[in-house]
Amino acid sequence: MSKQAEEKLRRQSDFTNALTNSLGEGVYALDREGLVTFMNPAAEKMLGAGWQHVVHPDDLPNVVERWTKALRTGETYQVEFRLKRAADESYRWHLGRALALRDQEGQILKWLGTNTDIEEQKQLEVTLARINRERELMLEEVSTPVVPVWRGVLALPIIGSLDTERMQRATEAALGEVMRTGARACIIDITGARLVDTQAVANLTKLVGALKLVGAEAIVTGVTAQAARSLVSLGVDFTGMRTHRTLAEALASLIKSSK
Description:
By secondary structure, the chain is of the alpha/beta class. The chain folds into two domains: 21-124, PAS domain (Beta-Lactamase), CATH 3.30.450; 143-257, Transcription Regulator spoIIAA (2-Layer Sandwich), CATH 3.30.750. Helices cover 48% and strands 27% of the residues. Helix 6 packs parallel to helix 7 (198-213). It is elongated, with a radius of gyration of 33 Å. It starts with a helix and ends with a helix. 23% of the residues are buried.
């Protein structure tokens, strides 16, 4: 090799070393057997005591399994895990990745890997999950409101689908208010609901039955002409279930009967 070529390789090597040494994420290389041959300063800081000693005990089995599989199959290694920080021994989330470099015949020559600190991303995910859950709880309260409309009378307007999960929440809310207030009747207004199948009707029937069990009369209002046709076609039997066209009519009937 000429001196000019050697000098070019040296400059390239110096540039590569300077680049990897300046990176904040850990960069490392391993031979085909998985033995470490190079670590930049960031990787040494992260893994200096040996990676098995700094990976969180709960994450270690998964890390070992993923790395063992990568060595066996040659697949790209990627896993999220917590690493103990030497400064304060706190754990921070990292993303570990390693890619196999192969020769022209496809044989693995070495592995190049990185460890990237993703603690802030994980914290953001936790925050977003909490915000989404709080929003869901707020929507649940709004979507199944139980409001007093007269002495001893509650109203439960239902808009949209009558899926099982939502009707369970509505049932819990209605029963809770009946027990808390001692209400004698609950008007279930389904003007804006979608009674499209037997499951939706079954969920409504269960709600009516649950209210009866705690001593409250359940009155269904807002059955539209289209909903009535659907109920007839589904063979639904509303015998024994009190109904009115509108919530106002049901309330007027209850007020009249209380005099």
